[in-house]
Write a structure and sequence with these properties.
Elements: H1 2-26, E1 41-49, E2 52-59, E3 65-72, E4 75-77, E5 80-82, E6 86-87, E7 92-98, E8 107-113, E9 118-123, H2 134-156, H3 159-163, H4 167-196, H5 205-231, H6 237-264, H7 268-290, H8 300-323, H9 327-358, H10 366-382
Antiparallel strand pairs: 1-2, 2-7, 3-4, 3-6, 3-8, 5-7, 8-9
Helix pairs in contact: 2-6, 2-7, 2-8, 4-5, 4-7, 4-9, 4-10, 5-9, 6-7, 6-8, 6-9
């Protein structure tokens, strides 16, 4: 009986493999030469050195390609390439161009393949790319500390004031937190899509963001339910606050990416603008983290832990964005952040609904609706300091 069951599985599988093998061997039956060679060269990063430019490139096309010529600002220019001018599929290469660039000026680089396919790389305003040094590590770390840990800690300081509020007001603040997190979720998701657009098309950057979001959310929900089942209890307030701090921390990692990569690309004015905007924006996140703890008496050490979990990733993000930023990893991390935030929205909403149900009250009261709306509006208007 068992052997028959296995045969019913194997027969369709073998037939499928036979069909695929025939197609690979004989083709689809339509023999047409492509109108032009299919070549896709991806410029992953442009580093501006004192003596010229250094481009990290990757062949994401279906076949090998050869870089035969480089044009900089309408002039053919000498270049060297490692490991070789021929790149196999998915192979990385480094192109070095000695060029007398001018600080603050735009420059256009054209990479021409042996088949005449042109790949353009644009430098909007030339500026030396920061090199890895302990001074830069310290400076970037301070920026991440100022953007992540400081504003979240300031937000947590409102806990004593919120602690004195009545239950209805506490629930309104939880609803406000859901509004804050919902805005953060969509903001993180859209930031992921923006970075995903820079990922080579073969890696499907936007799908990477969506997959990371869905899997992270489901994984965290499953883990949370497993923990509750083991302990035979519902989620504790400190547990929910830790989940929220983790989700916000992953979001702040994305903010650090934006700041670090801005300075790495020489856009210091934009980087400074983002620092001010994110600092104002992140104060509200500290309020959101404190909200689940209003019915308990947490220790100071727990507040320190929550502030560190939520804020420290901004430091890591600033280092990552400034020194080793990669679009594909940026898409993965922002997708994970969006998934973590979505899971926290689910947990807090469930907690809020159960509390109102226990007290025979409607979950969507006017106070809760007002808190939810205010949460979204706070994030919307503070985002004016970030968007440009």
């Amino acid at each position: 009986m068992k052997s028959k069951w296995m045969i019913t599985f194997l027969i369709p599988l073998v037939l499928l493999l036979m069909v695929l093998g025939w197609v690979l061997k004989n083709g689809a039956g339509v023999e047409r030469e492509p109108a032009a060679p299919i070549e896709v060269l991806n410029v992953e990063q442009i580093k501006i050195k004192p003596n010229g430019f250094e481009l990290d490139v990757n062949n994401t096309g279906p076949e090998a390609l050869t870089i035969s010529q480089v044009i900089v600002d309408d002039s053919v220019w000498n270049f060297s390439m490692t490991p070789d001018s021929i790149l196999n599929r998915f192979e990385d290469g480094k192109i070095t161009i000695n060029y007398p660039w001018v600080k603050g000026d735009p420059h256009t680089i054209l990479l021409i393949s042996e088949n005449g396919i042109i790949t353009e790389a644009v430098i909007d305003a030339a500026s030396l790319t920061p090199e890895f040094s302990w001074d830069n590590v310290l400076n970037y770390g301070f920026i991440g500390f100022y953007v992540g840990i400081v504003p979240i800690t300031l937000g947590l300081l409102w806990y004593p004031f919120m602690k004195r509020l009545k239950r209805s007001w506490v629930n309104a603040i939880l609803a406000l937190t859901v509004g804050l997190l919902l805005f953060l979720f969509f903001g993180t998701l859209f930031d992921g899509f923006e970075i995903g657009a820079d990922v080579p098309s073969v890696f499907q950057g936007n799908m990477v963001v969506i997959i990371s979001t869905v899997l992270t959310c489901l994984l965290l929900i499953g883990f949370d339910q497993y923990q509750q089942q083991r302990q035979k209890s519902k989620g504790t307030p400190i547990g929910i606050a830790l989940l929220m701090a983790t989700g916000i921390g992953l979001h702040n990692f994305g903010e650090g990416l934006a700041i670090g990569s801005s300075f790495a690309l020489g856009e210091a004015a934009l980087g400074t603008f983002l620092i001010i905007g994110f600092t104002l924006h992140n104060i509200t996140e500290g309020i959101g983290i404190a909200a689940p703890l209003l019915k308990t008496n947490p220790k100071i050490s727990q507040f320190v832990l929550l502030g560190t979990i939520a804020g420290a990733p901004a430091i890591l993000g600033t280092w990552f964005g400034g020194f080793v930023f990669s679009p594909i990893w940026g898409a993965v991390f922002l997708g994970i952040g969006a998934g973590a935030i979505l899971q926290v929205i689910f947990v807090i909403s469930k907690m809020l609904i159960e509390d109102h149900k226990k007290n025979n009250e409607p979950a969507v009261s006017w106070m809760n609706f007002a808190g939810f709306t205010i949460g979204i509006l706070i994030m919307y208007f503070t985002a004016f300091f970030v968007k440009f």
